[in-house]
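Worked example 3 (structure in, sequence out).
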């Protein structure tokens, strides 16, 4: 004979297993700039340790590509951009909620470790030098153009510095990691990347610093997508990134929260 206690216990177990199934099946989709790859992978480990059964699906690419995918209806919960431009464009279309700047970065010039042909910034204008940059639609590409304008205006690098550098541009890439890869493989003599990207390939590339007063500070905003199907989880991920634990991980990979002198 089936007792009421047995029925209650069976129902309780069924509800518990159902809830476990929901928890273990929940996914968080994070769209993040390519330069965040290593830092966010480590942040994800911290997040998943506190959210057992939750999986995180990352989409790392140029911010402009991620923005287009979101505008076209891609399932995303969190957007972390390498500039304000693409985040603000999504906000104007009511696709992204409030954002906060969680990291900052700066540009550097990289050259191959083996047989470098560029040893100082003025070498970028020498005839025959192959330079690779990101497309102007990519945040790092736009920052590169801004830095070159400022360097040219300083008068420190000779007449028509920006024009002469751009004459040597052999290709424009869709994200910063593609620029890094071409230089690391020796397919280009120099490239403009973020300092944090150069830190991931220290045995393959050399770094030429751009003077702080002539450089550009890249700002990274993060926010929850309006169409997120996991809003609570998304908010918690953003809180981790902007909180002490996430910031410690970001600093480990070379990012800063505030603008500091070098």
């Amino acid at each position: 004979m089936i007792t009421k206690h047995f029925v209650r216990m069976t129902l309780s177990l069924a509800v518990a297993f159902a809830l476990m199934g929901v928890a273990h099946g929940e996914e968080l989709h994070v769209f993040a700039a390519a330069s965040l790859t290593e830092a966010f992978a480590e942040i994800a480990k911290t997040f998943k340790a506190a959210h057992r059964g939750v999986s995180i699906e990352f989409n790392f690419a140029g911010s402009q590509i991620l923005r287009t995918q979101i505008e076209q209806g891609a399932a995303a919960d969190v957007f972390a951009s390498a500039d304000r431009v693409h985040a603000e464009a999504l906000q104007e279309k009511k696709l992204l909620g409030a954002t906060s700047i969680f990291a900052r970065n700066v540009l550097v010039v990289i050259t191959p470790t083996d047989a470098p042909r560029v040893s100082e910034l003025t070498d970028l204008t020498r005839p025959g030098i192959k330079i690779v940059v990101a497309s102007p639609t990519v945040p790092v590409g736009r920052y590169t153009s801004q830095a070159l304008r400022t360097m040219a205006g300083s008068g420190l690098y000779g007449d028509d510095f920006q024009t002469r550098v751009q004459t040597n541009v052999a290709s424009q890439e869709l994200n910063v990691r593609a620029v890094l890869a071409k230089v690391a493989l020796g397919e280009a003599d120099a490239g403009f990347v973020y300092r944090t990207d150069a830190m991931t390939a220290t045995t393959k590339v050399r770094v030429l610093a751009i003077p702080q007063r002539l450089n550009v500070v890249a700002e990274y905003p993060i926010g929850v997508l309006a169409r997120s199907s996991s809003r609570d989880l998304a908010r918690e991920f953003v809180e981790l990134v902007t909180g002490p634990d996430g910031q410690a991980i970001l600093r480990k990979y070379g990012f800063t929260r505030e603008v500091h002198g070098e």
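Notes: Confidence is low (pLDDT under 50) at residues 9-23. The chain has two domains: 4-104+219-252, 105-217.
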